[in-house]
Amino acid sequence: MAAASSACVLVSFASLLVYTFAIFLKPLAAEFGWSREAISTAFGVAALAVAACSPPLGWLRSLSGQAHHSALYHHFRMRVRFSLAANAPSMAPLRDVPDSRRGGKRHRATGLLASADHMVPGTARRGIFRLAGWECDGCHGSSPHRRSSDPKCRMAGVVRDPRRHRPCRWIAMRFPRPRAFPWFSFGGYGSERRCR
Amino acid sequence: MSGVAVSEGLRSRIFWIVVAGLFLMSISQNGVITHLAALLTDRGISAANAALAVSAMGGSILAGRLFTGWLLDRYFAPRVAVCLFVLSALGTFLLADAHSLPVGVGAAALIGFGMGGEGDVTPYLLSRYFGLRSFSTLYAFTWTAYAIAGAVGPIIMGRAFDATGSYRVLLIQLGVATLAAASLMLFLPRYKLAFTAGED
What pLDDT is stored for residue B66 in this prediction? Predict the structure, then answer.
């Protein structure tokens, strides 16, 4: 996972735009005949996008908390088409924030994030998750997942429309529990099978 | 999980000191990072060597991050921040008069070191003063300040060059602003023990 994160950071907003901007500033000014202030404004626009995205992202992160963090982190990484993704590296230190909160709030936050998700076809996403090694239970079969009535079930609050459900999205966002973080007590792999 | 609520954090003087310091620092950092290569090539350094200076900055950001983490484990974070900001200001002053590659690389490395270190210091300070309860939201607000300054810095650098044909005067002013940010860090009080005790 560390290697995957590093690879993602390597081609992220910070390294591609921020640190190479200096190299291109003068050639761009020469090519288009624009002033340096005008070229710098492009950087300013990107920075303002970061400024605008940070508070909602931080707030969502505070709702979704530790347990979903790594999933969301990679989730954002894959959403390169959203400018929101640009800000994910800035949130990397939040990995260290434990979250004792459980239950509905987290699902709502996850849902909000996932709702931005419909642009990627389900099969492609599934392929990406598989490639990344995030095999998920339950998304192989065709039977619609129903809402669980078991209050202990972590999927209990999640409403899914059986006609166009995308179970893979929800399940893949719940990672197998990394052994290094014992406070990840959210059932781990396969718990969704138990409560269905 | 212990810590303050978001509203409480936003009303705190400490939070705004951290934000103001970060803002002042970020103006000069982002201004320099976006104009470094142009500045050096203006002064007769080849494009390849200017790119080397940019890479040196990247390397020193890495070093700054690691070394600052080590320092934070040993020393009081606001003092560490003061040192980093002063280093960064020194780099900015140096860059204002850099006419050779070694000076340019040295200045870039100093600024980068401060920049990398400050990326460690801000979340650390927030977690010490405000706990972890609202950490992500408060940290996001500091990022907003950083990014707004990151928009301002390059634009005023560009404007200064377009107006005067040189970055020198503005870089000196930005160095002074970074020193002001360093002195702001001196106003940070001791950690609130209730939170630090809870985490340990």
Answer: 93
Q: Is residue B133 over pLDDT 50? A: yes
- Map out the domains of chain A as residue ranges: 2-194
B159: distance to nearest CA of chain A, Å? 5
| CB-CB under 8 Å, A23 with B54 | yes
Q: CA–CA separation, A37 vs A34, rounded Å?
A: 8
What is the distance between the alpha carbons of residues A47 and A13, in angstroms, rounded to a whole number?
A: 10
| Shortest distance, CA A42 to any CA of chain B (angstroms) | 9
Q: Which of A35, A43, A76 to mutate: most B Cβ within 10 Å?
A: A43
Sequence-distant (6+) residues with CB within 8 A of A182 are none
Report the candidate in A84, A87, A110, A73 with the shortest Cα–Cα distance to residue A186.
A110
Closest-CA residue to A139 (of A101, A111, A174, A109): A174
Domain boundaries, chain B: 6-188
Of B1, B58, B141, nearest to A99 by CB-CB distance is: B1
Of residues B140, B115, B197, B184, the one with CA closest to residue B9: B140
Does A33 lie at the interface with B, CB-CB under 8 angstroms? no
Q: Specify whether domain B6-188 bears CATH 1.20.1250.20.
A: yes
Residue in chain A closest to B112 (alpha carbons) equals A19
Any bridge partners for residue B3, and if so which?
B131
Say whether residue B10 is in contact with chain A using an 8 A CB cutoff: no
- pLDDT confidence tier of residue A141, bands split at 50, 70 and 90: very low
A186 CB within 8 Å of a chain B CB: no
What average pLDDT does range B174-192 have in this prediction? 93
How much of chain B exceeds pLDDT 90, in percent? 85
Higher pLDDT, A143 or B45: B45
Condensed to tens digits (0 to 9), the pLDDT of residues A76-94 reads 444 433 333 333 333 433 3
Is B89 part of the contact surface with chain A (CB cutoff 8 Å)? no
Q: Of the candidates B123, B176, B177, which has an alpha carbon nearest to the alpha carbon of residue B149?
A: B177
Q: Determine whether the interchain pair B147/A98 forms a contact, defined as Cβ–Cβ distance below 8 Å.
A: no
